[in-house]
Specification:
By secondary structure, the protein is mainly alpha-helical. The protein has helices spanning about 25-65, 85-100, 105-110, 155-170, and strands at about 115, 120-125, 125, 135, 140, 150-155. The protein has a two-stranded antiparallel ribbon. A two-stranded antiparallel sheet has the order 3-6. A hairpin with a 2-residue loop joins strand 4 (about 135) and strand 5 (about 140). The protein is globular, with a radius of gyration of 17 Å. Pfam families: Glyco_hydro_88.
Length: about 180
């Protein structure tokens, strides 16, 4: 899920579980990227307690992959009207899976890099932003339909980063964890 309210006080939170109502691809992408970075930092022996859950997560991510190789904005609801392939979440998942030696990124590059208005390539169909709760003049309720209402943007720096990370991994360069922790 995108978020969890342990107090179950937010109106977007399920009153029993505290979870928000949708599986947003970019939230899942952050989790998947963190898991592979932590696995790299800890090494196989110390990461072992998380291995089974991580493998199960990656297997499910692969099951949800669309025929073109990418993932939808609301990843687990392919029949949701208006659901679309979300570029930055797809890049995040491709990076995580590639880093885990499970998947390449050729499909991401082919499908999301499109000619822009000036003829340069741009990464298109990025979810502009998604959050929960009040924002400006509306309330973001966390429903699957909500994630389809956020504006789509191109070439936003904080959303193109996962594509760059995945490209570096594909070219054989090691991508260091974003925030290296001391290993004792």
């Amino acid at each position: 899920m995108h978020a969890n309210d342990e107090a179950r006080e937010q109106s977007w939170a399920d009153p029993v579980t505290g979870r928000s109502g949708a599986h947003w691809t970019r939230a899942l992408g952050w989790l998947a990227m963190c898991l592979v970075d932590v696995a790299e930092l800890l090494g196989p022996k110390r990461f072992a307690p998380l291995s089974a859950q991580t493998n199960a997560l990656f297997e499910r991510i692969l099951e949800l992959r669309r025929p073109g190789g990418l993932w939808l904005q609301v990843i687990d609801q392919p029949d949701l009207a208006g659901n679309f392939v979300e570029s930055s979440g797809s890049a995040m998942l491709a990076y995580a899976l590639r880093t885990a030696q499970s998947l390449g990124m050729v499909a991401v590059l082919r499908q999301v890099m499109k000619p822009g208005p000036e003829g340069h390539l741009e990464m298109a169909d990025l979810c502009g932003v998604a959050g929960l709760g009040p924002y400006q003049s509306r309330y973001r309720d966390g429903s699957p339909g909500y994630y389809l209402t956020e504006p789509r943007v191109s070439n936003d720096a904080k959303r193109v980063g996962p594509l760059m990370m995945c490209r570096a991994v594909m070219s054989g360069r090691r991508v260091p964890a974003a925030h290296p922790l001391p290993v004792s």
